[in-house]
Amino acid sequence: MRLLILVGVSAGLAGAWKEVSTDVEVGTPRGRLRGKHVNFGNDTTDFYYGEADVFLGIPYVQPPERFKRSVPTCQYTANGETLNAQQFGPACYQAGTACPDGSDVPMSEDCLTLNVFTPNVHSTYKYPVMVFIHGGGLMFGCAGEYPYDGAVTNLVNRGVVVVTFQYRLSTLGFFTTKTEDFPQNLGMLDQVEALKWVQDQIAHFGGDPYRVTIFGQSAGGVSVSAHTYSPLSQDLFQQAIMESGVALMLFEGSLGNDDLCKHRAEELCKVSAHDFDNGKFDKLKECFDNMDPKDLVKLDEVNIVGWKITTGDDFMPDIPHNLAKFRNNIPVLMGSMKDEWAYYDMVLMSLKLTKLESYTRKFFEFEFDVLGGFLGDRKQDMQKILEDVYAGVEAPDDDHNLWLRATSAAFTSAGFTNFIQREFMEYLANGNMRMWLYELTYPKVIGKLYDLPGFPEAVPHSSENAYLWRKNKEFSEAKATGYVNQDDYDLSDWFGTTWTNFAKYGRPYLNDDWPNLPATGTEIYMDISGPKPVVNRGGYMTRDNIVWNQVLVALHGDFIPAQLNTSLITKDEFEAIKASYSSHTAVCAIVESTDTTPVRTTSLRSTIYSMIPTTTSQYISSTSAYVSPTSEYISSTLSLFSTTSPSSEVLGIQTFAFLLLSLLL
Fold first, then answer.
1. What does pTM read for this prediction?
2. Which of 341, 351, 254 is nearest to 306 (CA)?
3. Are 607 and 429 in contact (CB under 8 A)?
4. Does the residue 531 lie in any domain?
5. How many helices (H) and strands (E) are present in the chain, helices listed first?
């Protein structure tokens, strides 16, 4: 039954658009939900168009207990009443406002909710599923930053179900003593529960649990990458997209182990480093259990490194390099922005903490001194190499434009691209060639924080978000200043088409114009210089790879966390963790005994993996053999193919820390 509940009208960017919303309900084994059917009309010249069934604020676990692992929810409401799923749930606690985009939403520890945007909740055809993980350095972010209007137009409208969700952040999600007092990776384990929910429940919303793509940006990309390594989650999806983020970027020991947990214990509860190191946590436990959640996260306003995924638990039982050989060889799409670090330079200038004249050799060395401590006694050697490579051997000390660009290039390589290089090299070492690389080089105009003087072509971190999610706020602001042109709308279409192609077909293009990576030779990547990207065969970030993964390793040894004190896990141990976890996942089995969703099996997963093609001809020829539980499912699947200044007097080190308050990832 559908009841008219809302009509909204707005001035669209390419014409007026309106949202007509009506009630829609669905019954599931965990309870009945009331969402809304939204209709933006069918005029494709409008900024928003298309329609979908939207369910918001669905709890995927029980209200979490502080510093304890989340537990799946078996019933959405205690009394069996229909759950109202028509608004986003509260954000998870974080420093500052609840969402980095300034959205005025409440915060709560009971924040573990997800949202489903589906073409038709009652469809007998099961659509491919895209599960998005938001970024924010594992300390900021919320699902409300990615509203359904843009998702419906640019993703759902192309034939996929989209799921977004929230997970515990900051101290509440990633503080650990590596003991039962404060278990590891709680935020990542929340994500595992969200992925399990998708496997168990998405069929009731028109989604296909056998065709799940997880994708994320920044720390969301870090999370996606981490799930490909983890024995707890690597079988809960079939494809992955990593946007400007891979596991090593926010991993314990990468770019130095900063002892953030130990520092928080001392700063918030006056627990000495001696007591922390010797396992004396009684005082800490009492302090943290009784502390206001706002106080637990407030110090992230000056956190310049973000929180870290840690190793040694069931989620991440070893370092990524040792786990890589156990990963599933699945289709993977990954890439970066040309000038990732320029985002932070934009923020510095927008806050008037720096200006163009601030950028000198001295400022570069100041930044490197703050962020390069992990290099130890090799720091000066590496600093000189970076200056020579990214600024030039004879660079003038006070060429401001040159040092602005050199700073961006050097720290883009240090914090982003060298890790992405390692990620896809691990896959290649495993024989996985179903990988596609990209670099966005189209100058950032949508959602631009600040015009960098002398650097108008900068493509900073997060540049793709406004295009992929078709964010009205960012497009509207850009249009008001005269920035937007047709290429921007076309690029938004390109992102929507390409990302959903990958989710539906296991490859970004239906032809071979974007080749997957070869087993040997130069890496091929897509240069997204506009709405008609071109293939670059010259190698992905070759200079950065040489600097960080060859020269630095020769100087310093492997700075990636090979030095962590972990034992090398065996295949049997890895599989034992996976099996043990699987045996404890049926907590709702009795409640869900009427669930008709097919049971996943290892053999079925393996069959599906092996059938994902690498060329269009293979894809078409394989469709008749696609594994599915019913003849109706086979028919619906086949039908898919018939349709389609930094000096001491200007900027001290404390100010520098503040300027990066929520910026890293």
1. 0.87
2. 254
3. no
4. no
5. 24, 14
Q: How far apart (Å, rounded) are the C-alpha atoms in residues 180 and 196?
A: 23
On whether residue 625 sits in a domain, the answer given is yes
Supply the CATH number for residue 278's domain.
Answer: 3.40.50.1820
Q: Based on the domain organization, do 117 and 258 belong to the same domain?
A: yes
For the chain, the first-to-last Cα distance in angstroms comes to: 43
Both 466 and 562 in one domain: the answer is no
> Containing domain of residue 629, as a range?
1-336+490-513+557-665
User: How far lies 574's CA from each of 316, 547, 582, 601, in Å?
Assistant: 10, 33, 13, 18
My answer on whether 97 and 189 are in the same domain is yes
Looking at the domain assignment, is residue 534 inside a domain? Answer: no
In a domain, 44, yes or no: yes
Same domain, 495 and 616: yes
Secondary element (H or E) of residue 6: strand 4-10
Same domain membership, residue 495 and residue 388 = no
Task: Decide: 212 and 184 in contact? Cβ < 8 Å.
Answer: no
Place of tokens 């993980």: 133
In the chain (665 residues long), the average pLDDT of successive 10-residue segments reads 42 59 96 98 93 98 97 93 97 87 84 98 97 97 95 98 99 98 98 98 98 98 99 98 96 79 97 96 98 97 87 94 95 96 88 92 90 78 92 94 96 92 92 94 79 88 94 85 87 98 97 83 87 91 90 77 71 92 58 41 37 37 30 36 35 37 39
